[in-house]
Specification:
about 375 residues; Phosphorylase Kinase, domain 1; 3-stranded antiparallel beta sheet
Length: about 375
């Protein structure tokens, strides 16, 4: 059953997808797919609605809602469609061909990121995170595995993915949770103090350190040692790994790896740091709840221009199709109202199988562990 569809119109006859790799995580499998009629590439995230005997449908709907919120941001992965079967919800997402930045973080020095590359990518990450924070969203799992590249060679742009642990911050409530990936969690998570947007900024500090050096600053021999290193701020900025790193880059990291959340730089402040040399032309059109509308002026015009080009390209594709039909769109905040009979579920599972074709697995299970 199609329960969400983005702006792209769909051809209802003969619209098939084929899948050709698996990327398996804790509760989800991501498969690359190609829309047969248009040859457009997407990534489909298959998410089980029941996990460890519990109904997790509303958690998935939360992730969908965050992705809908960030549709106008260039640095957050774009949500195209959502399907629901009896056992899964399937998010059809923008395809990032370059894979995770993790691969280049751990590559040999000759193939690893250069500082100029990290500066460019970090500006994009911060612009994406700044957008989320302005809209009261905290990601809470920012790490190299959750930052993708649009292409690997030449080095493309970033896409922030996986909002499964994200939370909406409410000014009237304190959020305290034990969650995240051990190497990237902030001290306040370990001490069970309130989580805030500053929690993401700690993770960005660790992420910058890893991208520049290929080393995880707090990683110990086991989880307990890692947590101790974080709590005691056992981090070094010297040694041969920093021989080619500028002092300005080190200063940037130091503004983030600060134990007290209130003393950490915000995303906006980071974008003003001398190391990044703030761009005059922000790359996205952001929806700001505090103003009740979209930002305007140069940013608005640039985004509108890019949007018009995209729409023109889509119109060209649509004109080539003989039969088109607008499929039902249900916004995430009303997804809970969707219901269907068992017979309809079987029918829709068959329909999805017609849209998608599978081939042999390509990627292995996602490494790492969570602490929640």
């Amino acid at each position: 059953m199609l329960i969400y569809k983005g702006n792209t119109k769909l051809v209802t006859k003969g619209l098939n997808f084929k899948f050709f790799f698996n990327f398996r995580g804790k509760f989800a499998v991501v498969k690359k797919c190609i829309q047969k009629d248009t040859e457009r590439e997407f990534a489909a995230k298959f998410m089980r609605k029941r996990r460890k005997g519990q109904d997790c449908r509303m958690e998935i709907i939360h992730e969908i809602a965050v992705l809908e919120l960030a549709q106008c941001n260039l640095w957050v992965i774009n949500l195209h469609e959502v399907y629901e079967t009896a056992t899964e919800m399937i998010l059809v997402l923008e395809y990032a061909a370059g894979g995770e930045i993790f691969d280049q973080c751990v590559a040999e020095r000759e193939e690893a990121f250069k500082e100029k590359d990290v500066k460019r990518l970090m500006k994009q990450i911060l612009e994406g995170v700044s957008f989320l924070h302005r809209n009261n969203v905290v990601h809470l799992d920012l790490k190299p595995q959750n930052i993708l590249l649009t292409s690997k060679s030449p080095l493309g742009d970033i896409k922030i993915v996986d909002f499964g642990l994200s939370r909406i911050m409410k000014s009237s409530e304190e959020l305290r949770e034990i969650m995240g990936t051990p190497e990237y969690v902030a001290p306040e998570i370990l001490s069970y103090d309130p989580i805030s947007t500053a929690t993401d900024m700690w993770s960005i500090g660790v992420l910058t350190y890893v991208m520049l050096t290929g080393i995880s600053p707090f990683l110990g021999d086991d989880k307990q040692e890692t947590f101790l290193n974080i709590s005691q701020m056992n981090v070094t900025y010297s040694g041969e790994d920093f021989d080619l790193i500028s002092e300005s880059a080190v200063d940037f990291i130091k503004t983030l790896l600060v134990k007290k959340p209130e003393d950490r730089a915000t995303a906006e402040e980071c974008l003003q740091h001398p190391w990044l040399e703030q761009s005059d032309n922000p790359a996205c059109r952001a929806w700001n709840k505090s103003t009740g509308g979209e930002t305007s002026d140069t940013t608005q015009k640039d985004a509108d221009s890019a949007s018009e080009k995209s729409v023109d390209a889509e119109k060209t594709e649509e004109e080539e199709s003989i039969v088109t039909e607008e499929l039902i769109v249900v916004a995430s905040y009303t997804l809970g109202q969707c219901r269907q009979s068992e017979k309809e579920k079987v029918t829709e599972q068959k329909a999805i199988s017609k849209r998608f074709k599978f081939e042999e697995p390509l990627l292995q299970e996602i490494p790492g562990e969570f602490i929640y």
